[in-house]
Design brief:
It is built from nine helices and eight strands. By secondary structure, it is of the alpha/beta class. The protein has a single domain, classed as TIM Barrel. α2 runs parallel beside α3, α6 crosses α7 and α8 crosses α9.
Amino acid sequence: MDKHWMNYCKMSIVNFMAFPETASGKGPIVQSIARIAEDDFFDAIEIAGIQEAEVRADVRRMLEISQLQVCLCAHPTILSQKLNLNSLDKDERQKAMQSMVELIDQAAELGAQSFAFLSGKDPGETDRQTAMDILVDSIKTLCAYGEKSNLTLTLEIFDRQVDKKALVGPVKDALSVARVVRKDYPRFGLLYDLSHMPLLEETPGDMSIIREFITHIHVGNCVKVLGRSLYGDLHPYFGYTGSVNGVAELAEFIRALFDIGYLDEKKDPKPWIGFEVKPQAPDQTSELMIANAKRTWRQAWALV
């Protein structure tokens, strides 16, 4: 591709994956976000909830100065607390909803543009449709609440059978959810992840099914073969031995994003593409993971 990617998208990074010590909402949050804010490769950042109000104030000021856009991601909270927005148990569902409302308030406090989350566990074929209906109701309630803060809500698609075992899930089910929610909340969208795609047995071409609903993209890597090191949804660096995604696969994915119209020079505002890579060993520093991702992106872009 001759033109720079800035003509087509904003580059972001999932901060709590690159710096996993911040996923709990504590730790070196200010320092890690400063590391990204000082790197003009990035236009945006995706962060976890932040427990302390003073730290949130420091982060908001840093984001204002650096002009980084921000998405608050509920994933660490949902996964660590085993929250389920589509639970068949009303009390469990209410607990999840309350946590999401609190995080949406944090997103507004931080000046975020968007709020991302994932569905709960897949209950199995017998109760799946009931869970889907419950999920739609939960999302609509959260969208109504998020509108008060001008937030775009985004549901990320995860694997159903390998690691997270989430309800959503295959693109056909993501489509059914998005169609219903969009009728009332036209800003609602889906987040599709290159690293989840192989775990769902999907291909870049499958994105065409949900093309009109994709509002956010993640690029990362995974290990698909059972028994190999880092099997599942662990986001090793690009090119990791035994993994699925490297330069060639990322280039193919970028081409598909052009094919479905996600990348379009005429789009305003520009859509997000976020790196999701995580250190997995002592010699894999956050800085090395970030450098690997940026280098892989540059090489893949040159092949498009």
